[in-house]
Amino acid sequence: MAKINTILLDCDNTLVLSEELAFEGCADLINEIATTKNIPLDKPFTGESLIIEFVGQNFRGMMKSLQQRFDFDMTDAELDDYVRREEDVVIAKLLEKLVSCPGVDDVLAKLAASGKYKLAVVSSSALRRVRASIEKVGQAKYFGDDVYSAATSLPKPTSKPDPAIYLYAMEKLGKKADECVAVEDSKSGTLSGTRAGIKVIGYVGPYAEAEKEKMIKVLKEAGAVVIMDDWSQFGECLAKVERGEI
Q: GO molecular function, one example (predicted)?
């Protein structure tokens, strides 16, 4: 078995507590689209209702799902315009209120100090948003240029659960799947990493207590090899993978 030398980290609600802020920001935009396209919603979307349905997907992925569900069309130019607007709205919210996930900064500092691991961010979100997030909370120094976005970095934009962004990141880093461990908090992210052949540590820390049991099951079913509730458990989870126990 190859030695683990690379940690690939999702961004939203894995490194930073951004999902709630981001979905709050894009709910207004999606409701505006619904009005423009004459989509009959039972009730307007809220940040909370979007999280339940679309956690782990980027805005482009959400739009594709909604177009299928409500049977409406959007030109590429329209979609690109809305993607840009959503980025602006969300980044403004993140720069105002964003904080790190509890305990992650200590873990990143220890991993970096050990010199044993390459650290990279692998996200569905737009690169501009991911960079703004990790810069706002002081994490950018751990990753350098190794920040990859399914929405921005790929020749053809996509979203997790497509494994394309993990495959791309590994290619750019010159790593094989068995040298990597990924950390993900969503079903789509876990599926993306798993489909790329990477062992995924599932993280349920940011979920409300009532949701945690359900999410543990969801992440395990999506392929997570072990679940952590808090970043203080990361070292133990990583050691299990490194020893080949999971």
A: phosphatase activity
- Can you read off the two tokens belonging to residue 28? 């207004």
> Is residue 188 located within the same domain as residue 223?
yes
The reported pTM is: 0.88
Please say whether the beta carbons of 176 and 170 come within 8 A: yes
Tens-place pLDDT, residues 14-62: 999 998 998 988 898 999 999 999 998 999 999 989 988 888 889 998 9
Q: Which two tokens stand for residue 170?
A: 């590994």
Tokens representing residue 72 in the block = 């409406």
Strands (E), the chain: 6-9, 118-123, 147-149, 180-184, 199-203, 226-228
**pLDDT tens digits along 130-157:** 999 999 999 999 999 999 999 999 999 9
Give strand ranges (E) for 10-97.
Answer: none
Q: Whats the size of the chain, residue-wise?
A: 246
d(CA 176, CA 178): 6
pLDDT of residue 57: 86
d(CA 115, CA 8): 15
Distance, CA of 216 to CA of 193 (rounded, Å): 16
106, part of any domain: yes
Counting the structural domains of the chain, the total is 2
For residue 1, being part of any structural domain is answered with: no
Instruction: Evaluate whether 183 touches 194 at the Cβ level (below 8 Å).
Output: no
Quick one: which of 242, 163, 211 has its CA closest to 20? 211
Q: In what order do the strands lie in the sheet with 147-149?
A: 147-149, 118-123, 6-9, 180-184, 199-203, 226-228
Same domain for 84 and 144? no
